[in-house]
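Practice problem: predict the structure.
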Amino acid sequence: MTRCLISSIPCLVDEKQMTRTTMDERTDKTISSYDANVAEYEASTKDIIPQALTKVAAMLPEGPVLDVGAGYGRDALWLQQQGFEVICMEPSARMRERCKERGLKKVIDGRMEHLQALQHPEGGYAGILFVGSLLHVPKKAAPNILKTAASLLKEGGIIYLALQHGKGEVMRSGGMLQAERFFALYERDEARALLASAGLHVVWERMDEKWMNFIVQKA
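Answer:
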C-alpha cells in the first residue's frame, strides 16, 4: 500500500473488477509505463506547449496553481516561469524526480482519485490543471474527481482540461509513448455532460482533430 507523501494517508486500492483488469491494475500499469519511459516521453512532448496555457495564464486569479498529473513538469515549468506558484502532483516517482531536476519548486506524490485526502492551501487554488491526465482515469471515477477539484478552487478560480477525442476506454500503446497505457476517450457532447455533472460550466473551449481543451469554472 502506498502513501500520499504530504498527508500520510494511505492511497487505498480499489479492487472492483473492471472489464479487462481492475481499475487499480490499469492505473498501476499506466504509471509504470511512464516510470519506465520518462526520457522517451519528454523527448517526444517537450516542445509541445498547449496554446491554451496562454489563455489559462490570462484568466488565472492570484494564488497557487495545482497541476494534476504533471508528468515531467512541462506545463508547470512554463507557468512557473510566468511568475505563478505551481504545485506539481504526480504519481510516477521517476516523473517527480524529473520535475525537481527541471527546477519545479513544489512537487508532491498523489493519485487524482485521492485528491481530497491531500493537504491543500488555505483559501483554495487559483487554478487546477488536468492536461492529458484525466484521460488516464476510468470514466466512472471522473465526475467525483472533478467535483473534488471544483471544491478546491478559490472564488473565480478555473480548471483547465485537455481530453482526447474518441469512444470508450482502452489499454493501448503508441502515439507519444510505445508502452501500454489506459485511456478514457470522450466525444465532445460526452465531455461537456461530464463537466456539467460536476457542477462546472465551460467558459472557453478549443477543438482539433485529436484534443478537446476546456477552461471551466464552478456554475
